[in-house]
Input
Amino acid sequence: MTDHPSLQPYVDAWTQSMEAISELVTPLAEGEWNRRTECPGWSVRDVVSHIIGLECELLGDPRPIHTLPRDIYHVRDETSRHMEVQVDVRRHHTGPEMTSEFEYTFIRRSRQLRNEKRGPEAEINTVVPFGPRKVPLERLLMTRAFDVWVHEQDLRRALNTPGNLDSAGAHVARDVLLAGLPKVVGKDAGAPPNSAVVFDVSGPVEFMRTVRVDANGKASVGGSPSLGPEATLSLDWETYLRLATGRVRAEAVADRVKTEGDAELATAILTHFSVTP
Output
């Protein structure tokens, strides 16, 4: 356990998802490692490689010396290029090699987190996904809990093994994704001043939130209901997750989303729904 109780929920959520991923991939046949996920260009092996690589960097391991092929279509900027190195260097690893490295990395990182003495506000050097700068330890741990849970769900969908949609990581993910809603509604979708948009989410993680845009065009999200919203979007939790993390386009899950009110605004919101890099 860390010395600071406020950090422990993120460590616990991260641990639960890492254990779940281990259980998912350990029994896989070699060919199953090549199954496509909803992460553009990434297989099951690639998703696990990504997790291993980020955790190794947080452990202070040197980055691989590796030149990426020029024809990787989903590498579009420096952030994705940085992440892809850790993925591409493992593309020819076997299943046993992957599971062994994952388990070893998990053990090392768990030990590091158990011995963590720094407080929530301690500034930590990091690159992905924040860029080359320092971030508070609490935010870093929250992001890792979010990231591994989202990738756990990527693996579950690819392997047709649903589960843990209501785990501790799911609730961390809900809070992270909700924090991005004001930008989606107010800036990207262009909701008019003095308007409100309601999101009614059902399923394992159930919630209703209202994004309000004030007279100056500034948007904020809250739990109080709106009696006359400009638009209402109703969808299940897994669909919300897939849209908000850019795994699917709105037209691919149109049958799972119900909209009321301003149809043009609702379409704009769904078009810009992704809040992850």
About this structure: The first strand starts at residue 123 and ends at 126.
